[in-house]
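Ticket #4471: structure export looks truncated?
Reporter: QA, pipeline team
Priority: medium

Steps to reproduce: submit the single chain below to the structure queue and open the exported record.
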Amino acid sequence: MTLSILDWSIIVIYIATVLVVGLAYTRRAQRSTQEYFLSARSLPWWLAGTSMVATSFSVDTPLLVTGWTRTGGIQANWVWWGLGVSGLFSVFALSRLWRRASVVTDVELTELRYSGRSARMLRAFRGFWLAIPVNTIAMAMVLRGMGKVAKAVTGLPEELTLPIAGGVVFICTYASGLWGVVFTDFIEYIIAQGSAIVFAFFAVRHVGGLSSLVRSVSHDMVTVFPHPPAHTSIWEAGFWTPAVVALAVYAFVQWWAYLNSDGGGKIIQRLSASKDEQHAMWGLLWFNVAHYVIRTWPWILCALVSLIVYPVIADPEMAYPQLMMDIMPAGWLGLMIAGFVAAFMSTINSQLNWGASYVINDIYRRFVTKEASDRHYMLASRVTVLVLSALTVGVALIIDSVREAFMFILAFGAGTGAVYLLRWFWWRINAWTEISAMIASTVISSTLYLLNRYADAGISYPAIITITAFGSAVVWLVVTFATPAVPIPQLAEFCRRTRPWGFWSPVMASLDGATKASTHGEAFRVVTWSVLGAVGLFALMFGIGKLLLGSPWLGLALVAVAAVCSAVLILSGGLRTEAGQR
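Actual output as written to the record:
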């Protein structure tokens, strides 16, 4: 189907509206870099959380989910579902700690947590590492996804559409800073999520309804958990099929090994920009519910429908936009494409602003030009956004697969996640721990990928994650105990400011009674709340899935479990912080 005048009108009106809303915040963003990067720390939870969702909901994500579901069934989505464990831990353990730290970027925490030359070197190194290689690859992956959709819609080559798409987003980010980003995120999420739900409705209707859909695909494609061979126990080698091993890695290793196990830079930016701890925690909770519960099933339903409509297709990721073009009626098709544009713009806007915050706050302002005016730093910020935009377009032109790029990013940082978590809870972690973890993770993951690409080694993705995580752990543990600990006065100041819990006994003597009292019993409460939250989240997500896919009683039982977990969290005070109690 080709685009009608109505479709084009909807797309143009949407893009114009977002640009106007974004540019309306230009004057406010120009007041200071605090406004440009953190919205003056005044975001309410609903706006901060929705911005988190919109940022992680990009044009490439439905393509990724479609590719995974078509090739491995619904259970293949554990590659991103498993990260929900760290998501709920971040809600109850880390959101309040990040807000108390009052940093501009997560990298700035380096010199609050550590001291000396190694801390300064780590801050500069990690700021560059996240802003340039990690950020540009992530943005290029999104831009590549947009290029695929644009090619399916217009037939134009990606070499033409990628620079155009990158330029449109650059204009909005360049001018409006985080204020423009979060308010356009709110509009973009509503359109992107709404259009995905509408698409799922039309897709399911196209194949005769949910019952017909379930009957038309194999049972293995709609199972949530992989089934080991019959009559085998967990102690037998035959039990551990590749699918079972993959699930074990995603559920028990990847969530803590993940580069963003502590929340991730874009999420942390919005936690830091929230009004207080209460708004930070609620915003992150809303993000996890929207991210895993609301977004999962519209994409999966469309992916299952595509298996019926296109049993064979050259590029599994392209089944989603191809199905959209083939079945959506005029007007609704324009809304769908506007949804794709919305998802694309919300992510790239955030990535550009976030990446520039590292370059300016953690490299340029800290080490290059320390005492310039805010006007000078605002100009430098905008130049950085321009440079990052150009780099992203260049990287996007050489990426072949969105899925391959996503998996590489996950593996690339798999050796660092444990360190990013432990620095909050174990006093012995130092700057050299982080440096060695980043180097080891980069070297090990890159080596394994090169062996697969050029030596046909056949190393599976779960194996890459596991080898990278545990191989890096050996390196950073040795380095940690071979290098001096952070001085106690530095750690004491960190504890007074953030009030973490965990293994801080050598520091306790330096702390006042109020700080000690605020962390008493915190570990048990936070772990209990995190477990309840994770159980409730997955029960609600799988309950909705069972209701949709023909198991109503099991679905209702799982929804009831989620309701019980939510009630216990509310009654036990799990959703209240000190700010919320005042």
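Status: closed, not a bug. The export was complete when the record was re-opened. Leaving a note from the reviewer for reference: The two ends are 57 Å apart (CA to CA).
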